[in-house]
Amino acid sequence: MIISVASGKGGTGKTTVATNLALSMDRTVQFLDCDVEEPNAHIFLKPQIEQRKSVGIPVPEVNEEKCTHCGKCQEICAFNAIAVIKNKVLIFPELCHGCGGCSLLCPEKAIREVDKEIGIIQIGKVGPIEFINGKLNVGEAMSPPLIRTVKKSIANGKIAIIDAPPGTSCPVIESIKNSDFCILVTESTPFGLNDLILAVEVVKKLEIPFGVIINRFDIGDDKVDLYCKENEIPILMLIPFDMEIASLYSRGIPMVQEKKEYTTKFLDMFKLIENLRQQKAKEK
Ligand code: SF4
Ligand code: SF4
User: Any idea where the 4Fe-4S ferredoxin-type domain is (predicted)?
Assistant: First the structure.
């Protein structure tokens, strides 16, 4: 089962939920940090990294001797990553999505693909948790191919917990698609509600069963709660504002390590997710 943890905006406690859920599980789980622009789950899980692998995408390289400057490659590129100017072909690797279209359609076979590193994946272990994260190179914009590489580690029959990037853009969709369930973490503020509504639209479009965790539920208003009730969205857990949790977070200590009652809460939430999934499967 693949459970992704997402949030419409940053700073809601998404990584806190993902890491503490993984640490609470009573069986082997895979943890995938797909927040590749700013991976930070390792700070809390402290895995022993055993492997590092470079991840690249194929970008075009033009053989000027073969090129007739016909302009076909520029026409086909939907990302403006290749431009034919007078007698020169310019390539902008940072815009290239590595789709291979230009090399396929070049009539002179003047384009070959060369690998360009966009980041790395790291694979490690901590207790029964198999840890995988992706780290995008600084200044690199192409996170979806790296996220896809991280997700290739998902093994059939295991529970995989995905820490998705914040927001509702392409990297989030790449991270959560094909999940069996998505946990949306929000907070009880007007911003929290606004971004939750956007995130709900995304998971509904992707037809992923989902539920909501309201973090710091006791210091905002009740609009998130009302929105969930009106829209029959299950509330999976309420986490109060707690200085001790905030202090543990600031020191990179998972809350379940010091506040043992949360282990049971996260495990109960996992059972609830299993039930909700079964219900959804029956409804289909
Ligand atoms: S399609 Fe091929 S031949 Fe035409 S401009 Fe591009 S690289 Fe040159
Ligand atoms: S590989 Fe695709 S994205 Fe990259 S330059 Fe060629 S057509 Fe554009």
Answer: 58-87, 88-116
Superfamily per CATH, domain 2-55+119-283: P-loop containing nucleotide triphosphate hydrolases (3.40.50.300)
User: Taking the alpha carbons of 79, 83, 89, 91 in that order, is the dihedral positive or negative?
Assistant: negative
CA distance 206 to 202: 6
Please name the residues in contact with 40: beta carbons below 8 A apart, sequence gap of 6 or more.
Answer: 15, 33
Cα R_g (the chain), whole angstroms: 22
Q: Is the CB of 97 under 6 A from ligand 1?
A: no
- The share of the chain scoring above pLDDT 70, in percent, equals 100
Closest atom of ligand 1 to CA, residue 71: 5
Per-domain boundaries in the chain: 2-55+119-283, 64-109
Query: Both tokens of residue 75?
Result: 């026409």
Measured from the CB, is residue 69 less than 6 Å from ligand 1? yes
Looking at all shown ligands, the one closest to residue 111's CA atom is: 1
| Ligand 2 mutation target, pool 59, 61, 74, most atoms within 8 A of CB | 59
**Length in residues, the chain:** 284
Report which of 18, 9, 55 is spatially closest to residue 169, judged by C-alpha positions: 9
Q: How close is the Cα of 25 to the center of ligand 2, in Å? A: 43
Q: Counting ligands in written order, which one lies closest to the CA of residue 95?
A: 2
Residues 86-115 have pLDDT tens digits of 889 999 998 999 999 999 999 999 999 999
**Which CATH code, of 3.90.1150.10, 3.30.70.20, 1.20.5.110, 1.20.58.410, is assigned to 64-109?**
3.30.70.20
